[in-house]
């Protein structure tokens, strides 16, 4: 979910520093730790892939990353002030280091044994999604890249050990779908003609059909432990509130209805269809929509000052129009904002969501939490 624009030169040395300095391979005896995390998705979990693309969707300039300790506060390409949900989940599950961005020059050799991040700001389930940003990695391309990684694992570990490592000691995170609505179906003028012939039912079914094939491809490449997040309440992000001139507690109804419609189909795909058809596979459905809606509605209960105003922004009543960049205004206390910029949550919000996914009950994650998934 992103509208980031290209900004300053990428401090690539930062990526090399924390990508190599903290990389170590999980030993076979450390059975309680997650060995590798493979992350697919959009800007909610992009760890820097878009730094290497000629794209309008980038977060490679300050103050992005201001609270990301491994880079000492320098931007890494993450669309938030600190860690993404994928970063936090990996840490808590014992992953030795962050999954390296696939497009980073150091994404080779032993560096990939702790996992690889394929996520890309602007990417979607559908290939047409995010074309407004010029370049981005859609889900099809991300799976293509994993197929290359899979061959590298065979060379590094040998075929038998690589298969066991990926099937039993690795986790596949899928965080995608928001852009298919925000930067495809709901884009003013660009998608208006398509909506005349493609109803929400048809569009959502097209997304599900594509995702089904993408997940089956990953299964054929030995992916066995999946967590897939549903689409958050995208009608409540500062950008949507600003362009629709809504009050603080209001949300865009159509955007949220589309998200809920997709989420219902996604749950059925994972929990019924693929669960029964893909042997020895575990799917976890992460109820991100309800978790974020709870934060937005009850933000004061969680210690936040606002769930409608972005911490970093430039234009609009809620700092909700232009992306976060060097000329943006910055809030005084980032821990008091649910949203970092007009589109993405702060690290403080990510920490709360990640905690629910890791240790929560069936209201947050179905059929079990990520700690249980890791230990299967």
From TrEMBL:
<protein>
    <submittedName>
        <fullName>GDSL esterase/lipase</fullName>
    </submittedName>
</protein>
<dbReference type="GO" id="GO:0016787">
    <property type="term" value="F:hydrolase activity"/>
</dbReference>
<dbReference type="InterPro" id="IPR035669">
    <property type="entry name" value="SGNH_plant_lipase-like"/>
</dbReference>
<dbReference type="Pfam" id="PF00657">
    <property type="entry name" value="Lipase_GDSL"/>
</dbReference>
<dbReference type="InterPro" id="IPR051058">
    <property type="entry name" value="GDSL_Est/Lipase"/>
</dbReference>
<dbReference type="GO" id="GO:0016042">
    <property type="term" value="P:lipid catabolic process"/>
</dbReference>
<feature type="signal peptide">
    <location>
        <begin position="1"/>
        <end position="28"/>
    </location>
</feature>
<dbReference type="InterPro" id="IPR036514">
    <property type="entry name" value="SGNH_hydro_sf"/>
</dbReference>
<comment type="similarity">
    <text>Belongs to the 'GDSL' lipolytic enzyme family.</text>
</comment>
<dbReference type="InterPro" id="IPR001087">
    <property type="entry name" value="GDSL"/>
</dbReference>
<keyword id="KW-0732">Signal</keyword>
<keyword id="KW-0443">Lipid metabolism</keyword>
<keyword id="KW-0378">Hydrolase</keyword>
<keyword id="KW-0442">Lipid degradation</keyword>
């Amino acid at each position: 979910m992103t509208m980031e624009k290209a900004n300053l030169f990428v401090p690539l040395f930062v990526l090399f520093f924390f990508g190599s300095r903290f990389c170590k391979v999980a030993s076979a005896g450390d059975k309680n730790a997650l060995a590798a995390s493979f992350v697919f998705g959009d800007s909610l979990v992009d760890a820097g892939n878009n730094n290497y693309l000629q794209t309008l969707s980038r977060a490679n300039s300050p103050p992005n990353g201001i609270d990301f300790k491994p880079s000492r506060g320098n931007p890494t390409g993450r669309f938030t002030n600190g860690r993404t949900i994928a970063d936090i989940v990996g840490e808590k599950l014992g992953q030795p280091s962050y999954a390296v961005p696939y497009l980073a020059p150091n994404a080779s050799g032993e560096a990939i044994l702790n996992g690889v991040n394929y996520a890309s700001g602007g990417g979607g389930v559908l290939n047409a999604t995010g074309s407004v940003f010029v370049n981005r990695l859609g889900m099809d391309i991300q799976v293509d890249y994993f197929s290359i990684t899979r061959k590298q694992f065979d060379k590094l570990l040998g075929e038998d050990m690589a298969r066991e490592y990926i099937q039993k000691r690795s986790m596949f995170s899928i965080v995608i779908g928001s852009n298919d609505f925000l930067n495809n179906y709901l884009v003013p003028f660009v998608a208006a003609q398509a909506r005349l012939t493609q109803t929400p039912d048809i569009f959502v079914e097209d997304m599900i059909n594509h995702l089904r094939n993408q997940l089956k491809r990953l299964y054929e490449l030995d992916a066995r432990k999946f967590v897939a997040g549903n689409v958050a309440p995208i009608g409540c992000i500062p950008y949507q509130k600003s362009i629709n001139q809504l009050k603080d507690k209001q949300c865009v109804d159509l955007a949220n209805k589309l998200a809920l419609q997709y989420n219902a189909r996604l749950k059925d795909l994972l929990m019924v269809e693929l669960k029964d058809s893909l042997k020895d596979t575990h799917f976890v459905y992460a109820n991100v929509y309800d978790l974020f809606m709870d934060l937005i509605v009850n933000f004061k209960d969680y210690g936040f000052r606002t769930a409608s105003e972005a911490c970093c922004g430039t234009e609009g009543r809620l700092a909700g129009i232009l992306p976060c960049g060097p000329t943006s205004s910055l809030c005084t206390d980032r821990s008091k904002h649910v949203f970092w910029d007009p589109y993405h949550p702060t690290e403080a919000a990510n920490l709360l969501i990640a905690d629910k996914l890791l240790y929560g009950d069936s209201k947050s994650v179905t059929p079990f939490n990520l700690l249980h998934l890791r230990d299967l």
